[in-house]
Amino acid sequence: MSLSSQHIEKLEQIVNEVSQxxxxxxxxxxxxxxxxxxxxxxxxxxxxxxxxxxxxxxxTVDDCMNVSKSLSLLLDxxxxxxxxxxELEVSTPGLERVLxxxxxxxxxxxxxxxxxxxxxxxxxxxxxxxxxxxxxxxELVLANDEVINVKSGDFIWSVPRNYIHKAKTKFSxxxxxxxxxxxxxxxx
Length: 188
Fold this sequence. Notes:
five-stranded antiparallel sheet, 3 helices, SH3 type barrels, three-stranded mixed sheet, alpha+beta, GMP Synthetase, Chain A, domain 3, 10 strands
């Protein structure tokens, strides 16, 4: 049994309140599985204004545990998850996080992202495509409610938000703008 949009909205409100009490924000939530094994997944994060030593910090294992304990009790008392038994999982969105909301994209500016579109993307001026482009990866350089800009190679792609089917950050060991170290020759 899937949850109605009203149930989801009420769940989001409760989860957000509990998360904020614990110094976190609700990043996303989803109900997965089917009859007999449903899982309510709650993803929490720290807000941009919550920094440690001047750097944004993510939610910790302790944050997840505290939100899980508070949320579990509250959801059971309020009987918010209709349809029988379910498991509650509380975690961070991870390094390669899904981007859905405007603030998700804004927080990811400067990071490498992977975008899949639901239609062909309009190529930037000067870009010669061998085939239609429906996905791209690169550095996210701008994000708002209407559009995101992704720097891929020497080009900046402007992607309308309503074209985006799926978007997520991509973890890499180096900064998207960093130059690779020159390869060293092997000694014989």
